[in-house]
Amino acid sequence: MKGEILCIGTELLLGDIVNTNAQFLSRELASLGVNIYNQTVVGDNADRLMDALNIAFSRSNIVFTSGGLGPTKDDLTKETIAKFFDRKLVYDEIAYKNIEKIMKKKNMEVSESNKKQAYIPEGAIPLYNDNGTAPGVIVSSEDKTIVMLPGPPKELIPMFKSKVVPYIKNKVKNVLVSKEIKIYGIGESLAADKICNLLSGDNPTVAPYAKEDGVLLRITASGKDEGHCKNLISPVESEIKNIFKEYVYGEDDDTLEKVVVERLIDLKKTIATAESCTGGLVAATLVNYPGVSEVFMQGVVSYSNEAKMQRLGVNKETLDKFGAVSKEVAMEMAEGIAKTAGTNVGVSSTGIAGPGGGSEDKPVGLVYIGFYIDGDISYKELNLSGNRENIRHKAVLEILNELRLKLRKC
Q1: Which residues are paired to 380 by β-bridges?
Q2: How far apart are alpha carbons 337 and 297 in whole angstroms?
Q3: Structural domain spans, the chain
Q4: Which tens digit of pLDDT belongs to each residue from 340-360?
Q5: What is the DSSP string of 39-71?
Q6: Under CATH, to which class is 256-408 assigned?
Q7: Which numeric CATH code is attached to 175-251?
Q8: 3-class DSSP state for residue 216?
Q9: Where is the MoaB/Mog domain (predicted)?
Q10: Over the stretch 90-141, which tens digit does the pLDDT of each residue have?
Q11: How far apart are the C-alpha atoms of 383 and 397, rounded to whole Å?
Q12: Closest CA to 214 of 177, 173, 244, 178
């Protein structure tokens, strides 16, 4: 089944909203075995939408649209598609009753504009909307099928999952299943070189993707059912994990902070953070994980030398001799926060994020990160590139990954 996604709305073209619907639909359809080869965005214009439909059906047999099903005059999706399929619009009593119910919940009267949403192309399959006034619609004619979905994600996502997924499952012969393996500490090109023999396979396929938090290796298999696909994926997954070993930090929805926090919970160890150049980003990243309160005690942003001395107990002599940006200060910061917070683990950052403030000896991008784990103190020197935001973000990832590796040995 060759599919295409057609997102409708001038606001998308103007950049007023982010097109998250296309991302959601692409992922969901891939897992259902629908091959999406093209995505198109078109404004609220009937002629341009008609052109987009002609192009889409010249190369695909099923098209998924989002948007343009609202009550206003510029919502032309349903009307244009009805014309494309040479169907007249007919009144749907259930759709109208649903609109009445939704409007009643909002303490609003059904307007004449709302009533137009109760009309659907003749012979179409209505997808009644439990979260809004616009019903979705499926129209089929010979080898062409279009699935119209509302634009708001809070309406599109539940409608797709509850009503479109069963429809698609009855249509496709094979399913697609993907497994994602996440690695950190090795670049995309080198990772690809290490698994070049796997990249040429056709079922399952393996594809590397560079992400902010490392490299994602996606294994995708096609088969008659999910179990068949998982059996195809399993030996490839094992081979990849054996190749990359400690570089592998997780899979699928795992993040570095999730892996670190869950390991701390397993070890029953608590943690505190002392940050200079990262300005609280380490703490903020850790608290992305909802169970972090079990292990995260406190975070301190000690930007000035005075704060480092008063709050963390960094020695003035250390600052005078080595400077704030030094491995010595990073280690004293990590030890100081752990001891003052009474935690097993302390991590720290001190560096030069730029754009100014660097020197020949200590250039922009030089960052020292410190670690205190049950009395063991260590550091790592980083030489990072990019703008201020990039340097700070990379430093956070390095701290989390280095901590992950250290906690593995505990």
Answers
A1: 369
A2: 10
A3: 2-169, 175-251, 256-408
A4: 999 999 999 999 999 988 999
A5: EEEE-S-HHHHHHHHHHHHHH-SEEEEES--SS
A6: alpha beta
A7: 3.30.70.2860
A8: strand
A9: 4-170
A10: 999 999 999 999 899 889 888 888 889 999 999 999 999 999 999 999 999 9
A11: 13
A12: 244
